[in-house]
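Think of the structure tokens as a kind of shorthand, similar to the way a musician reads notation: each symbol stands for something richer, in this case the local conformation of the backbone. In the example below we present two proteins back to back. Begin with the first one, reading the sequence and then the tokens, and try to describe in your own words what changes along the chain.
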Amino acid sequence: MIEIFAYAIGVMYTPGPVNLLGLNSGINGHFRASSGFYVGVGTAMLILFLFFGWVGSNVVGGNGLILVSVLGCTYIAYLAFKILRASVEIEENSRATRPLRFREGLVTQLLNPKGIVATLPIATIQFPGVGIHGIALVLWSGVLALLAIGAPGSYSLVGSLVGKRIHHPAFFRWFNRVMALLLLYVAVAIGYEYIYLPLAR
């Protein structure tokens, strides 16, 4: 059981598109207002855990994973473009960028190959290995989905603590550029690992 949590935390809490978006949201002063985004991420993880737990690992493999990766890379690049173009104006400690929404968290995580990589080994190897199925599968999936909510939430909290100490718009413009470039890097890395390499074989 400890191995399940160790793997889940190790994958979910490392930097990735969802966590970088959470960090950006916190920096821009939307930690509380973006709570729907965190819940959307957790909901996506719940869907993935239940889907892979019941259907098995043969559903998303080969061309299926390549298709999900193409969609994920495209969506991550789109989000990077939106962050890059976001205007930043500070008026009475409020940033011009809008909070992230539930739908954005849900779609980003469902199309995030990192989310699939996180759930597949747990749902198809670790759960069956310790006899988790049926109602126990639903309960464990719920617990891990709650853990997933905390990943972008914790990044956003850190961002909000840092953001409160900074009041110059230039910082936020540069931060948005850095976040956008990191997201583009993530999209390229995912494209290389999950699209180019499988097609090149």
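Once you have a description of the first chain, move to the second and do the same.
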Amino acid sequence: MSKEHIETDVILIGAGVMSATLGTMLKEVAPYWNIKVFEKLDSAGKESSNEWNNAGTGHAALCELNYTKEQEDGSVDISKALDINEKFRVSQQFWSYLANRNVIESPSDFIRPLPHISFVRGERDVEFLSKRYEAMSEHPLFRGMQFTDQYETLKNWMPLMMKDRDANQPVAATKVDAGTDVNFGELTRLLMNHLEDTDVDVQYQTEVYDVERQDDESWEVKVRNFENGTIEHHKAKFVFVGSGGGSLHLLQKSKIPEGRGIGGFPVSGLFLVCQKPDIVAQHDAKVYSKAPVGAPPMSVPHLDRRFIENKETLLFGPFAGFSPKFLKTGSMSDLITSVKRDNLVTMSASGLKNASLTKYLIQQLLLSKEQRMEELREFVPEADSEDWELVVAGQRVQIIKDTEEGKGTLRFGTEVVSSEDGTLAALLGASPGASTAVSIMLELMDKCFPEYMGDWEEKLKDMIPSYGQSLIDNPELMKELEHSTAQALGLDVQDSSGKVYSLQ
């Protein structure tokens, strides 16, 4: 007896920011397509997209030092920073399109202006930051960036961090006032609510536990409903696996050749949190510094002003941890069950190559709260442990694969793995993911729906005016769109002198 399939056009697995973004974009270009979303938890944006599970940095490479690399000749390569900055601007264009259509009625619910600062200590790092500033400030995308190594100026920029600091210590910072704080959890909820209003079938407390290709090249998605225990078999022409750390297992079950040999390494995070108004009021920025030697890029220390659950908050971290779970709500067997015959050698090679990372994670796990406070005091010299509490942030699964760099390379960043025919795609990896979600989904649509892209071009340009053009190479277009997006989203604009002004 054949199974009864519930047929649809598109299935999105996971109700995080990636599925929310792709679903919203598809509904704009193909409004008559039937879309279903399956989410294991009871509401949207509860895992990696949740505001407590990430730093909320609108990753635009304004302050993240790991996006700029010092070369052997001493020069600073800013190509990755340019790429990420452009992609964040593309996301802002799409969000402003939604705001102008009142899909997002109050942008300040999820995005707010906040300065981005890079802060370093020691003569060597001060020299690096100065060269980085010279390279970046020459490009229109980073105009308005300011640099200082003067104590009084730094005290004005970061009063909490400069209080009681040794004035003889070499320190420096760059500052971009037109940075942002983004609540990706709230953005996800806004987009998912909109999808439900446009007749997208969003089902919570439903777990996708298998994905299998059918003879007609469609995909069968097996779904378990936690509320009533029923099993359903859904069938779709296209499936997107956007379930964060849970994506790897489903990619493996799909058996597409492109997913072979890929492994994952879970890294958890913790933050120190302060919500005392008198302390929070002294720090109005996101301040990033350099990662410790041996630490993964996602462990770059930073002190962030956040607006979470209607409260001004300071977060410091992240401190790395380890759990074999691939999601905060995952299983302790996630890591071991992800090891398959086709990725065993890759995973083993990675273990041997990343001994320093393993050592770093062990050291981080063994830290007491007071030892973590000592790391915070490198940022805030007078920090009192009674004012700060430790919270567990999200799980991230870093990609492990064989590359030109060798077997078992641990890759940091976000990557889409798709079948050759484009009928299934899975998103793997971590930062800067959410900030660049719109660009990632444009690339996915180009790969998975090539036959429609010509028909969708006019609408895509309406949604994202720079579509098909390079903001890096077109500063006039960049400036024009910067103003329109800032106006729609209630953000600030910074001129070449560093002066910030509002368009509201």
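Compare your description with these statements about the second chain. The mean pLDDT is 92.
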